[in-house]
Write a structure and sequence with these properties.
Rossmann fold, single chain, alpha/beta, 7-stranded parallel beta sheet, elongated, 4-stranded parallel beta sheet
Length: about 375
């Protein structure tokens, strides 16, 4: 399916309008399944807008795959704040935690349908469940906006073929993987090849293998190295499920097993990169001196680590643009308009060259 990619962030120095202040903590609050968030205060003037807007009476149901995910915490907080600023009543925005369990999330979707919500925004636990979710929501005549975890191309084609009010908002994970690989490739073989074998010896710590983001980041980070003419050697490839503690465990095991042959650690997200950093430091290794480490998301703590030189680089996964575009798509449906079935944005490579600028935008 042809994807329409919006050039939201094309430069290393960001120019992002109306960036609401967003908590930069990398510690996401854990929550029981079905837990609702309390809406943050709207931007200045948001309460007046809510009182006057036709959107104030509209009910929005939001399903997040897991509240304990660092990035999705940033995303849902920004989404909620932006919805309120656009005129929705905070009492009519309900955000629930799927607790990384598809059965739990499916029950939450059923409850939203029974409650008669006007629009659903869903971050699916399993992208492979999108077909079932779509049929259920479309059958209830409720517009649907998928976020962050992209359904497959066949599923997206169904939306177009049937002219359904269903769309996906997110970044193309192939771009983020490519940027990870480029961060490493740009260092040059001489700087990376500590063991002198002429290859880039790496370990890969993946997210959820069912998630297309994990699949693409894994594939395209390595492809970028190969496209740069570098020979690669995968020492290990393990699944860390986006979790910091798991990232630490897997990296520690590999450092123990492969020792100084580990030259690069690729992590599909920043949470696992933070765990890997703990393992690297515990093993007496030093990022930038005898090993390199990259992640994705540009969490505040990780961007600071890039500035400090303790993480080589990350990739900004623009939660501002994605949250705003998701809300705007929902509003279009509620207003009787349509959307492109794929609404995309760009990632931004984060290195020491622009990390301070990125940090200023997300802090």
């Amino acid at each position: 399916m042809k994807k329409k990619i919006f050039g939201v962030l094309l430069a290393a120095t960001l120019t992002v309008s109306s960036l609401a202040a967003c908590g930069g903590s990398t510690e996401a609050p854990a929550a029981d399944a079905g837990t609702e968030t309390e809406a943050p205060a709207a931007d200045e003037g948001g309460s007046d807008a809510a009182a006057d807007s036709a959107l104030a009476d509209k009910k929005v149901g939001v399903c997040i795959y897991q509240f304990a995910d660092n990035f999705m915490t940033l995303f849902r907080n920004e989404l909620e704040s932006y919805l309120i600023a656009q005129g929705f009543s905070k009492d009519n925005i309900k955000i629930v935690d799927g607790a990384n369990d598809q059965a739990t999330q499916s029950g939450q979707i059923d409850s939203f349908i029974a409650e008669g919500v006007d629009v659903l925004i869903i971050n699916p636990v399993n992208s492979s469940s999108a077909n079932t979710i779509t049929d259920k929501v479309v059958g209830a005549n409720i517009p649907l906006v998928y976020i962050n975890r992209e359904p497959n191309a066949d599923e997206e084609q169904r939306w177009a073929d049937n002219n359904w009010n269903v769309c996906y908002v997110g970044c193309d994970a192939r771009q983020s993987g490519t940027m990870q690989g480029e961060i490493i490739a740009d260092l040059g073989l001489d700087k990376i090849d500590f063991n002198g074998n002429g290859k880039i010896d790496y370990i890969m710590i993946e997210g959820d293998p069912e998630n297309v983001d994990a699949q693409y980041r894994t594939e395209f980070s390595v492809k970028a190295l190969e496209d740069a003419g570098l020979e690669v050697n995968c020492l290990d490839d393990q699944v860390g499920m986006w979790d910091q503690a798991k990232g630490q465990e897997l990296c520690a095991n590999d450092l123990s097993k492969f020792g100084n042959d580990v030259e690069v650690v690729f992590c599909n997200n920043d949470a696992m990169a933070l765990g890997a950093l703990q393992a690297i430091q515990a093993a007496g290794r030093t990022v930038g001196t005898d090993i390199y480490l990259v992640g994705v998301d540009a969490l505040t703590e990780v961007v600071q680590d890039v500035i400090d030189g303790t993480i080589t680089g990350t990739v900004f996964n623009d939660h501002f643009s994605q949250a705003h575009s998701s809300a705007d798509a929902a509003i279009n449906y509620l207003n009787g308009s349509t959307n492109e079935h794929y609404i995309g944005c760009d990632y931004v490579k984060v290195t020491t060259d622009n990390a301070a600028d990125i940090l200023a935008k997300i802090s």
